[in-house]
Automatic annotation (TrEMBL):
Entry coiled-coil feature ranges: none
Biological processes, Gene Ontology terms: riboflavin biosynthetic process
The reaction(s) this protein catalyses: GTP + 4 H2O = 2,5-diamino-6-hydroxy-4-(5-phosphoribosylamino)-pyrimidine + formate + 2 phosphate + 3 H(+)
Gene3D superfamilies for the chain: GTP cyclohydrolase II
GO molecular function: GTP binding; GTP cyclohydrolase II activity; zinc ion binding
Functional summary from the UniProt entry: Catalyzes the conversion of GTP to 2,5-diamino-6-ribosylamino-4(3H)-pyrimidinone 5'-phosphate (DARP), formate and pyrophosphate.
Co-factor(s): Zn(2+)
Record-given protein name: GTP cyclohydrolase-2
Length: 219
């Protein structure tokens, strides 16, 4: 069916940016959150911010968490994502207020689930996480944080204390108009299955992971 033409024969203007769609209570094992759902009109993704307490506007404890099905849902030890998500949720509850922005479309640093699994298969053969993406002809990190900044602005957040080890997240928020007053480390104890991955993140992706210095050979 042909799309209807608007006044004077012009196509209806496509919406852009992020739109708040719904606010629902979400009791969890960590505490009672508000799940605020958004639609990203630019990419078509559905997004959610888990808000705890009265955020205020400044120095809000914040986590931008990239979707990771294998880590968040299945408990994969290939990465530390699931543990980081749990730690972030616990941290905002302990703080009394904060927000975890859960970013869908970020699977595998933005390359998608199947491509991530292909990259994991290459890592099992000896490539590191950067080499694996490049071997597949994919970007090392394709994530965009404009929608996260838009969601924070909609929540009235002007500045954050960002729970992240990744300097690029800080740079992205600042570039999109959200101040980062402090970068709060979110360090997870490594295990045999993820130590190589974490060391690659530190050495090749500039993640701040000083706790790895104290870790000897894991076998």
């Amino acid at each position: 069916m042909t799309e209807k033409i608007g006044v004077l024969g012009k196509q209806p203007q496509r919406r852009t940016g992020v739109e708040r769609v719904v606010n629902a209570p979400l009791p969890t094992v960590y505490g009672k959150f508000q799940a605020i759902g958004y639609l990203d009109h630019d990419r078509g993704d559905e997004q959610v911010a888990l808000v705890y307490g009265d955020l205020g506007s400044d120095r809000v404890l914040t986590r931008l968490h990239s979707e990771c099905l294998t880590g968040d849902a299945f408990g994969s030890q290939h990465c530390e994502c699931g543990d980081q998500l749990a730690a972030a949720l616990r941290a905002v509850v302990a703080e009394g207020a904060g927000v975890v922005v859960y970013l869908r479309g970020h699977e595998g640093r933005g390359i998608g689930l199947l491509a991530k699994l292909r990259a994991m298969a290459l890592q099992a053969e000896g490539l590191d996480t950067v080499e694996a993406n490049l071997a597949l002809g994919l970007p090392v990190d394709a994530r965009d944080y404009a929608v996260a900044a838009g969601m924070l602005k909609d929540l009235g957040v002007r500045s954050v204390r960002l729970m992240s080890n990744n300097p690029r997240k800080r740079e992205a928020l600042v570039r999109h108009g959200v101040e980062v007053d402090e970068q709060v480390p979110l360090l997870i104890e490594p295990c045999e299955s993820n130590i190589t991955y974490l060391r690659t993140k530190r050495e090749r992706l500039d993640h701040h992971l000083p706790h790895l210095d104290a870790v000897g050979h894991l076998s």
